[in-house]
Known about the structure:
Layout: H1 11-28, H2 37-57, H3 68-77
Amino acid sequence: MTASPEHVQSREDLARFVRSLHRRHAEHESTWENPDLPSFLGALSAWIDDADGWYRNAGREMPTDGDWRFFAQALEAATVYE
Length: 82
């Protein structure tokens, strides 16, 4: 089963979701619109900027309780973590 963002309720779920993305990339890299790190990070920052519009267009409410600092720290840590 592929993890989905809707199922992420904990740090462990988030780790499982990221592992699923990693696996999906390894298995289907050619189908990804942003298969390399620079384009992926560029798309990630663009989506974060436009997230309120995405949620609005999907008929959903933008979450206000995200731990943005944790996510930022995880991204930063991954630049040096082995």
